[in-house]
Amino acid sequence: MSTLVSAAHITKKYQSTTAVKDVSFELQAGQVLGLLGHNGAGKSSLIGALLGSLSHQGEIRVCGLNPVSQRAQLMSNLAYISDVNVLPEWMTVAQILRYTSGVHPSFDISKAKQLLSSTQIALSKKISALSKGMKVQLHLSIIIATDTKVLILDEPTLGLDLIYRDTFYRHLIEWFHDGERALIIASHEVNEIEHLLTDVLMLKQGKVVLQGDMDSLHAQYFIVDALHQHQEVIKQMSPISSQAGLGSTKWLLKSQYRSQAEGLGEIINPNLQEIFIALQKEGV
Amino acid sequence: MHPSFFMLEKELLEHKIVTRLPLFLLVFGLLILGSIVLNTDSISNMSLQFNYQGNDAPDFAQGLSRVIAFGAGAVSLLLSIMYLAKTFRKERQEGSLMFWRSMPVSDLQTHVVKLGFALILIPLICSLLVLSAELLLWFISLTNGQDLISLLGEVSFFGVLLSWLMFMAKMILVSLALLPLACLLLAVSQVSNSPLLVVVVGAYTLKLVSTYVFTFTSLADFIRDISSMPMALLTAQQPLMVFVQVGWLSCLGAYLLGSLCLIVSLLLRK
Amino acid sequence: MSDWNDKQPIFHQIKELIEEQILLGVWQEGCALPSVRAVAADMKINHQTVMKAYQLLVDKNLIEKKRGQGMFVLPGAAEKLKMEQKQLFLTRDIVNIAQMLKRIDMPVQDFIEELEKQIEENR
Hints:
The structure holds three protein chains of three kinds. By secondary structure, chain A is α/β, with parallel strands linked by helices. Chain A has helices at residues 43-51, 71-74, 93-103, 109-117, 132-144, 162-177, 190-193, 214-220, 231-235, 258-261, 272-281, and strands at residues 3-13, 18-28, 32-36, 57-62, 78-82, 150-154, 182-186, 199-204, 207-213, 221-227, 241-244, 248-254, 265-268. Chain A is globular and about 70 Å long. Chain B has one domain (3-269).
């Protein structure tokens, strides 16, 4: 497998604040990285650096290219969809497809048209007349019809209704399955993307608070659903978070306490959302 | 086909005024001419008037050609400047900048296409306006009888082609003179939302400050010469003389500043 | 997106779902299972997770991979699963029932009568 993205010691400082502090990661073909964090955690800055639109310290290579000095070349293999529409509103669907076919060497216009034919998006329609979901769908169709190796999604389904969400993820997963590609998804909706991810990078105030593949992540934490009477014992294990229920409390613990906690209640695998919320709360 | 072709096509779609204004002027001119031709009384009146003024007819035809050429040239200049001030700002304001930058097109190519659109394609479109207007006059002179010929004098097909070529030659010089200003506008329009205002106010301030504060008039002269050059070229009988009058030093300075602006604009685009 | 429980990894849950469906006859023996791509897109999960689930079934000799054609249910798979469930019932559910009978003080005879009644009704 080939390394598609490598970022080493990425730091982005603004006058008074540090948006990203010493973030490093690598992404191989077949990996899906979830970029998690609250607003202002540094997700956008990191994405900006990957896209070459933000100056930064540290070394980034996407498909072996420098995003700033080799942007034009890189854009044959790198694409980006955000929650803000970037498609030119004054163009029609047919016009934007024609333009892309002219300037993008690997764009397959018949494939794009075929993808769009399964949706409500008519070629003669102006982009400004499309709904938010349609615009995202159109953008994804354009990207799928090119030879994109690395796709970065920034809150892609924000404000989309359920039907468009479904089509979006369906096309995305099929496309991802069909090639040697890597995907980076930044999203608040942790539950929605959790099962797509192979890796996680969690940021808090610009710093990495969690990094690794999903399997090791589940090996790092567990939840014990214990009766109230065990409260004092469990508090000794420095629980990360707790959620009180009827007669029992769910405690999120680090896996080093697993053998100690096993007799105290039912052991549950935490989902990403629970770990996310717990880690974001920690130390605030 | 080369990517630049599709990029130019996109600019044409985006800035429809570039094709619509010349087309509108052509239709407008056609209507006026039509009404004059239909109303033969007014033609005899006009020829009468001209006779009174003592101008002979062939001069009027030449004068009309000159008016058409000047009008089309001024429209071209206006469209070019408006386009240059708008194109980068519009992309930024509507948010499509991120989309254009997500295409495998280098910043240099984008700049070359935009300059080519403003300085080659727009004059070319306006030259079509000249050509069709001249052809129209020629056609009218063929079909309409003596009245018009007495007014316009002999209009030949060769003459039509000649004035078209002359117009294009003149516009090449105008575009050359406009090039440094074009680069300046591209650079300024990336940081300001009203680039034309910034450039005009900036130029006047520089002029005033250099003249009255530093009593250094050469800078004011330079700004005046360079900024008035495109218009001077349009009205000049012998356009090449305009370059001579401005002087090679000022021209060189303008091009140096222009390339500097282009570099700044490329860096700003990053 | 789907209703996964938090007791077991998802690939395990997919495996169990397919086993149940083989038992119910949704996937007949000798028939093809849906492609990894289709399952991933339908369930909105990573295709590697689906591949893991299919691999577990291959390891249990319930399905086989035919090159270029996908996954097929092996003959005897349903029978094998039935045996497995029987075993599971004897080792796990019977124990639970015994514990329950004890907890509610119910004689075995009464339980058998109730059970027979239930079987009669379902017939």
